[in-house]
Each structure stands twice: as C-alpha cells, then as structure tokens.
C-alpha cells in the first residue's frame, strides 16, 4: 500500500470513518513506515487541538441587538394589507407618499392622534401658564407636528373633547387667542405629515408656516378653569443618557411616549395607565426607563419600560 | 438541538417562538462567523445579518433538511460574501477570547495560546477549506452535514477537509520547527 493511499485512510481514521479492516491496514502500514506514523501522530494532535478550539460566545446578545429591526420587519410584514389600503388613501391626499412611511400605517395613525392631542395640550398650556414658551418648547421638541397653528384649534377641541363645559363664545376666544399667540417658528417639520393617510389634510393644516412664541400677558389667570381638566398636556420629559430617546409623560390620557431625539419620531407609546405618570428615570445605559404611575386614589405604582423589548412591567 | 415543535411554531407565525429559536441558535451562528472571519466585529455583523435572514426566511425552511445545516448554510454564505468583498489579507487582531465556563484555568490559558496559532492558521486557508474545517470542528458536523450545508458533493467535502488538515498541519509544523511553539 502506498503512503498516499494511507494518507487518505489516516484522514478518515481521524474522522472515525474507517471500518475494522481499513483500520488494521492503516496500522500495519504505520508500523512499518515511520514517516506515516509521524504524520498520523501529527494529524491526531492537530485534530484534537481543533476539537479544543474555544467555543467563543458573543459578548452581548445578538438577538437583543436586532430586536428593533425584527420589530420593524414584523410590523412591515403583518400590516402589509393595511399598508396597501393606507397607500391608496394617501395617494389621494398626497401625490408622492414616501414608501417607508406608507409601510407603517399604525405609526401614522398614532402619530396623527398624538399630533392632535399634544397640539391641544400646547394650546391650552398657553392659556394656563404665564410662561407658555417652556411648554411650547417641550411640545415642539418632542413632536414637530405638535406645533399648533390657528387652524389646529378646532381640531384640538374636537379630538381631546376640550372645553366641554365652556360656552361657544369661549371656544371662539380660545381660537382667537391661539391665533394671536402662536406665531411660532416651527422646527423642521420633517415628521412625514405629507403622507398621513386619512385626515391628513387636517394634519397638514396643523403644520405652521412661521410661528413665533410670544408671551401674551392676557393669558395669565385662567389656570384654574375646571373646564380644561382632563387635557393631554406633556407633563414631564426625560432624555436618555445616550441622547437617543426622549420620554414624554402625557398627562390626562395617562400614556408615556418615547421619541427619537434625532428625528423626533415616535418610537413607542405605552398602554394608557390609570393615573398620572411621573418620576421618569433612565438607567445609566439607557436601556430601561423607570416611571411611576400615581392613581387618582394617590397610590403610586412603579413601572419600568425595557427599551430593547418595549416590555412594560410593574416593578 | 432546536426542538422541531419550536421550528413549526415559528414557521406558523408565532413570533415569540421565532425569537426564542433565534436565541437558541445565536451562539452557534456566531461561532462559525467568528472562526470564518477571524474578527470579532465582523463576526457580530455577520451574525446579525444571518439571524435577520433566518427571521425573514424561516418560512422557506423545509423539514427534509436538518435545521442546523440550513442555519449554517445561511451563515457561511454571508461570511463567504463578506470575505470575498474584503481584501484577502488576514487580520488577526488582539482581542479577548470569551470562554464558556471551563474546568481548569491553566489548561484554558495554554489552550488559548495554542488556539491563537490554530486560528491564525485557519485564517490562511482558502475559503472553502476554511469553511469545511469550521463546520467539522466548531459545529461537529459529519461529512454529510457539511455537504448539505455547503451544497457540495461528499467527495469534494472530504478532499477539502483532508487538504485543509494537511495544510494546517504543515503551517503549524513549520511553526513548531521555528521554535515558536514549546
């Protein structure tokens, strides 16, 4: 038997692929041929070293790191039919809907709803507080579309059932005032308002051209008006330590919203909570947001939101 | 070994099952990527790509193939794409090995030393030889499983593996003669 043939036997022997007879053949040859015996010894050593190579593991969970991407893929996949309808609708409202956004009707609807609610909050916030600029800034930084314009006042009223106890005259007054006050300079309104599916005309009307914050002295004093309780106004914000997310507790409807700081996009909207959300505290690594829900009975419950999975759990 | 029931659930659209399944295979995916690409960052990138592809393609997996060979086919294809796009130079950067809990620290230090040389030698192999070696030794695949994963004839797998071992043996033997190894 030639050494070359034995080499193949040795290789298969290493892999446990030889039968009894083949093994004997190989061993007989190796007994007589020192070169092949040495080669066999080296191959066995090599093979055992290869078997002992460290079973390296990733230093973080790769699945965790792709969860947001999987979430996006899931949303795109499971709402494909809805997306088609939404695209059809938006084709009427807007001649060139962005394909990315038209894949996310759920987010758009949420976004539109929030636009109205937050806008309402901002309008009333102006009436309530002597320093409305601060509120506006918050509203604006958390959501560009929240920037109110005169046209948004009726919509705000409609959506948030504002001023339910007020007379028609007062409504008109509110609208006038907001018109006066809100000459706001809008921040970049790149939040995709143009391709909102239905009702997007309303949403676009809400987009201010040039509005500037002015402090109107006549607005002070109305803060205790019981008619405006139950409004959705941003109560507290907290930016994550890595400057990626801004958490905004929305008073009234008891939800907590997470926005991307860079693009102002709504990332997550919590389930409505029974009570007022506050005490927003980020973990140092920005992966967990802790918050407290204070119920109408005064009882506080501790919650946490995991930013990798968007799981809300009571602590 | 991934439970067939879990795979079925994942294929039926149970998203939680699918994520659980990805968690179960994450380490084996990473291990292959790490030894094929010889670089931690590239291995993490490739593993992410592979897991996302598995997530989106789970419906196309057919039971007649073994699940783990199907998974390894995906990750090896991604890695081969990656190192074809890269320059042929082998980057062996210093970085810490992450060990699974082992029994003996001293043995692990010694084996890490030897492992470094072996990893370096594997990195010098042509891509198909390298892939065959990684599947054989890091995934404990049989000839047949390697053939299925790489869509290669059985004899080709054997000849790649045998040649790879000979080359490795030569590379490491030279090392020894050069006195680098003890």
Cα distance spanning the termini of chain B:
38 Å
Oligomer designation? heterodimer
CATH class of chain B: Mainly Alpha
Content-based structural category of chain A: alpha+beta
> What is the N-to-C order of secondary-structure elements of chain A (H for helix, E for strand)?
HHHHHHHHHHEHEEEEEEEEE
Which blocks of ≥5 consecutive residues of chain A have pLDDT under 50? 80-109, 132-232
The residue fraction in helices of chain A comes out at 40-55%
> What is the second-level CATH architecture of chain B?
Orthogonal Bundle
Principal-axes geometry of chain A comes out as rod-shaped
Radius of gyration of chain A equals 32 Å
Q: What is the alpha-carbon Rg of chain B in Å?
A: 17 Å
- Calculate the terminal CA-CA distance of chain A, rounded to whole Å: 74 Å
* Overall number of domains of chain B: 1
CATH topology of chain B, by name, is Arc Repressor Mutant, subunit A
Biggest sheet character of chain A? 4 strands, antiparallel
Please give a structural write-up.
Chain A has helices at 3-14, 20-32, 34-51, 62-78, 80-93, 99-102, 105-128, 132-142, 152-160, 168-181, 200-205, and strands at residues 182-184, 211-213, 234-239, 245-250, 255-260, 266-269, 276-282, 288-294, 300-306, 311-314. With 315 residues, chain A is an alpha+beta fold. Chain A has a four-stranded antiparallel β-sheet with strand order 3-4-5-6, with helices on one face. A four-stranded antiparallel β-sheet of chain A has the order 7-8-9-10, with no helix packed on it. In chain B, helix 5 (105-123) packs across helix 8. Chain B has helices at 4-11, 15-37, 40-57, 67-85, 105-123, 127-138, 143-150, 154-177. Chain B has a single domain (4-177), classed as Winged helix-like DNA-binding domain superfamily/Winged helix DNA-binding domain (Arc Repressor Mutant, subunit A).
